[in-house]
Amino acid sequence: MNVSHFRDPGIIEYCPVALTKDRLFCPSEAQLEMLFSRTADGRLNPSLRDDSQVKWGDPVGTVASAAIFRLLETGDATAPPGFGGAGSPVISIAIADLSVTGATNLARFRSAAIGEGGEVDLPRLKGGVALVARAYAEDKGVTILPGRSRQVFDAAEYVVDRALAVLWALHGPVAHRAAARQPLGWIAVNAERDPPPRPVNVDTINWPCADIDVTVGHDGRDITTRIRYAIAGAADADTDVSISDSLPETRRPPLIPDDCLLLVFLHGHSSRLEEAGSFYQGLLDEQEFSAFSKPFAVVSFDFPTNGYSDYVDHEDLSPLQTTTRYSPDRPEQRRFGMLEYYEKLVVEFVEELDRQIIADGRSGILDRIAAVVGGSMGGNLALRLSERLVTNASWLDALVSWSPASSYVSFGRADYFIPSPGEHFDAIAKEALERPHHRCQQRESNGSRADFIGLQIQGERLLNDGTPGFEAGVRLLSFFAQPLVGGLAPLILGPGLGPLVSGLVGPQIWGAVAVEGVANITPIKQSDTWLREECRAEYDNAAAGQSALLLLNETYNSRRRRMHWRIAYEQLLFSHQDEVAASRGLPCYQASDIPTLLIAGAEDVVDEHRFNIFGGVQYLAPRMENNPGYAILVDETGHSIHAERPRWLAQRILSFIAQRRPPREILSASREDGRITAFHFAPLWKPKSYEQVLNHALARGGVTPYVIVDELGNRTRVLARRYLATQADDNPDNNLRALPPTSLVEPEGTARGRDGGFPVTHIRIRESSDSPAGSWVSHLCNDALNLQVSNYHAEEEVVAGRARYYILADGTEVDLHIVEYLTTNPDGIQENNLSELPDAAATDT
């Protein structure tokens, strides 16, 4: 794989800006007062988390509970002493929200809204809620005042209408979501009991969005999960909005234009599909400067237990003890269960989406996928796909991987004490690996949520994560390891300084100081490398923290926490530098053979010796000898290339794809005064000028990649001709080929004649099957003056205006000029078969 180093990206791009508060939905003072726990952990009140006010798994019962609070609010019912929240206007709305913001409640709400005939029957649903509300009131000791039957139905209608408004604002078509979401304000959601299937109070992107069930064969089982996805450049399949008598469609695939290519975007670790937003904008900005006439569509999706897809515990998807293991000296035993599952899911998702689009009566997408692209975890998975570790999709033609995790040396090779075969001493790397390994197995406790959210807000720390447990553990290690670490001083400090230090202070004191230093080490955070230095200085961390906190509060779930640490663990354990069980006896990088564009930023270095993605890519790229792609190293760039340099990244990707999928068939031509000025291809591609095609061909020996297809399907290649002649035809009366062959001996090397040119009296013709005409003039000669010059050199000199060559016709000097043209048949007739191309106006509709 060839490697290029960009010292300057060449495009001025402003640093990314953190989300501002006006793009988020925060709870009001009244909502904070009535709905949230006093423990300041972002949780809703216990009564909204347990089953006392919200009937989890029973949306009708939940909405009925909301109706009772509505009756208390309007004064049509009275509550017994100690009945919390009675009379508050925010309680009924929050409970109604919770009936549809979680995936499980929403699915059952949909079922409850379907009448006996299979159609949506909302009046029936409201009547049922009113009946359940009466029973609920009696059970809770709430007294509905006499003669309030109408008010009970009105209360049921009020809360059901709120639930429907929320449902449509989160799941409706793009235009409706954009208009309907803002007036609703903050919406109640509780991912701990029922994770949401759509963003609720956080920023999202206005692309058509849908759900799809994807089945992956893994670990001897078929595992089906619901995946949320969105497609930029597509349109909603259903645009009708009728809140009063229907529910939004969430399963039908969006409408993708039939004549566009697609990119499949893979998000990073613990991220979501919205990560593709800045990337797509970069594509739009750069498309006009590319070879493509139409923007690409971008398909982005949430991996399971990320974003708003199904939340499944990692042990249920890929058991840790049986599917993930690392042996430093036994590559055949190295497996990484969750990464294998995610790699398979990418392929199965794309193929299932293709099947559903075809089933909807539209053209499939497999032959239009230009590349699968991603950064960080997405970049890791893209590289794995190129290596065909557990997949081998026939439709996968190209991949783009930037800032790929697992490009560094496996942390599984590090050991605390005495290294085994294949290991090395590195207590810091070993501890960095053990922490996510331990955390992904931790069960939920009272402090789990606060600890996890705190670590995410601070930015994950590779080494000392600032917790008392880390410092206490390292100090305990120092007590037992003092003699050992002291003995290792020569290895740590080098043969010169190590013995001196150990001898001066004693091995036990040196060991204690060395290991104690780890406990006090300055935290090294991956978030410090997300952006280049100038952008980190400008970034509004407070605003970013608020956005992240809102997202974490909205999506926190014990399964999400455990999955986060499982993926973190496997991405430190797996390395593309290693041979693994699935790499067919090769290091992974040697198994990579699907064309890949590999990119890394020079500032993507958390720790030079351990967590160094830039260094990892520097190591991998020149060794990927079986991959026909190429790598780019770029200065002044961090980890999140798609966020800080979206236009530059888009430019590189569009160029890479244009090289991989150039247009082939010329369909029509533009003309001025009867002469061809441009060629037109399929609608995806911009026209190319006659000069562009001609110059491209001449630089490549006269052959173009383009063809013309006639009515019978015969394909004829377009060729370029370039020669010196007195006129632009092959008339032997006045052209170069009318001259006699030379008697001069052919020179060794390049014959350059003399400066300024000379009169040409003879020529040397060479037969060649590589020439479009079957033969070509190789030298211009003057036998009397003993001069000869290679035809190629003469052409270059004439083009540059540095020489004049001429022949004598009836005593008159006739200059030789450059003649260049394109043809489908090298018979010397300019524009030959190309003249039969239809006018572009007749085909470009």
Overview of this protein structure:
The chain is an alpha/beta fold and 845 residues long. The chain has 29 helices and 26 strands. The longest helix is centred in the first third of the chain and has 23 residues, at 149-171. The two termini are 41 Å apart.
Largest sheet: 9 strands, mixed
Oligomer: single chain
Strand order of the largest sheet: 1-15-14-11-10-6-7-5-4
The unreliable regions are 461-523
Percent of residues in helical segments? 25-40%
Secondary-structure class: alpha/beta
In angstroms, what separates the terminal alpha carbons? Answer: 41 Å
Q: What fraction of residues sit in β-strands?
A: 15-25%
Shape: elongated
The chain-level mean pLDDT equals: 86
Number of strands: 26
Overall radius of gyration: 35 Å
Task: Note the topology.
Blueprint: E1 2-6, H1 29-35, H2 46-49, H3 59-74, E2 77-78, H4 89-98, H5 103-113, H6 122-140, E3 143-144, H7 149-171, H8 174-184, E4 209-218, E5 221-232, E6 262-266, H9 276-287, E7 297-301, H10 314-317, H11 320-323, E8 324-325, E9 335-336, H12 337-359, E10 369-375, H13 377-387, E11 399-402, E12 414-415, E13 424-425, H14 427-439, H15 448-458, H16 468-487, H17 489-493, H18 497-505, H19 507-519, H20 533-538, H21 541-555, H22 558-573, H23 588-591, E14 596-601, H24 613-620, E15 630-634, H25 641-644, H26 646-660, E16 668-672, E17 675-680, E18 688-689, H27 690-698, E19 703-709, E20 715-725, E21 762-767, E22 775-782, E23 787-790, H28 791-800, E24 806-809, E25 812-815, E26 817-823, H29 840-843
Helix pairs in contact: 3-4, 3-6, 3-7, 4-7, 6-7, 7-8, 9-26, 14-22, 15-21, 16-19, 18-19
